[in-house]
Amino acid sequence: MAITIPDEMNAIVLDEPGGPNVLHLGKVPTPTPKPGEILVRVEASGVNRPDIMQRKGLYPPPPGASPLLGLEIAGTVVAHGSPVAGTDFPAIGSKVCALTNGGGYADYCAVPASQSLPWPEHYDAVKAAAIPETFFTVWSNLFTTADLKKGETVLIHGGAGGIGTAAIQIAKAMGAIPLTTVSDPEKGELCEKLGAIVINYKTDDFVEKTLEYTDGKGVDVILDIIGGPYFSRNLKSLAMDGRLVIIAFQGGAKAEDVSLTRLMTKRLHVTGTALRPRSTEYKGAVAQALKSHIWPLLNTGVLEPIIHTTFPLAEAAEAHRLMESSSHSGKIILTHPDQN
Ligand SMILES: NC(=O)c1ccc[n+]([C@@H]2O[C@H](COP(=O)([O-])OP(=O)(O)OC[C@H]3O[C@@H](n4cnc5c(N)ncnc54)[C@H](OP(=O)(O)O)[C@@H]3O)[C@@H](O)[C@H]2O)c1
């Protein structure tokens, strides 16, 4: 049966940067897949902190990317762009989840085929959409950038968030020992269940606790989302040859009171990365690593995305309000209307 693709589609649009109120359902042209891309009829899409930043006008899409929000989707492949050497297209009609370059909050999304993966076995759209952004980010940072190894310790800040719940599970599954920071006992309980040693950063000093749990040695790797206010304390929490990877600065981008002596005497490595502007080739390589190392664990239920709740696409503003309240644990997913 031929698939009819409309010229126009529903999407969450924003007329100007601002609070959640600027998000509303509108009509925009349906994207056409470029060479090497697939067009996916979106059934669910994930909400991520970078979407909040983009909505506020603080995280503009990279050149050439869709101006629409939405960094991850799950749905059905409905069209292929022209072929590109070395890129395999998933079949028309197959179910995929994908890391997008933007444009997930819409009926249709064009994504590089190499950034898509099949739904894990027995998954539905909601569970499949909860994987790409966090799993690609965590894999890329913990294993490519920080070279986290089996038996090493890793401190994951914000353990109950989307990134945090994925990072704890992936680190543990790969044989590392995850420690994590949370703001309350309920979030702590969830992270403990996922396999982390939990530190309540509201009631305890995370530096003291990290050193206590590692017999004074410090952790081998830190995945940080807080930035400036944690920088100096992160350096104190690292072991010799420790690696600090900063993927966000929710607390601010300026670090003060930094001891370079600590950096030198402990031979520390400090870096930061953003996944979205990286090349299609890089993201495709991460997809392949996930397929080899992580997909078998998703297929057998060893790993599972933690889903806090879902909202219909039209209620994207509500989903953003919830994320900004930080009262969620795990992922917030938008469900898209059935377009059959
Ligand atoms: N660089 C990249 O490529 C990249 C890619 C994706 C995401 N990110 C970044 O990663 C971060 C997490 O994204 P997400 O989608 O997982 O968001 P999320 O689900 O909202 O998680 C953020 C978490 O931060 C925690 N938090 C807030 N203040 C904290 C503090 N002072 N110490 C420790 N934890 C704290 C919150 O929980 P509590 O209630 O426990 O504080 C919350 O669980 C965001 O900043 C996002 O921009 C970066």
TrEMBL record:
SMART domains with a match to the protein in the record: PKS_ER
MF term (GO), any: zinc ion binding
Keywords: NADP, Oxidoreductase
Pfam families hit by this protein: ADH_N, ADH_zinc_N
Protein name: NAD(P)H quinone oxidoreductase
Domain Enoyl reductase (ER): 18-334
Lineage, opening ranks: Bacteria, Pseudomonadati, Pseudomonadota, Alphaproteobacteria, Acetobacterales
NCBIfam families: quinone_pig3
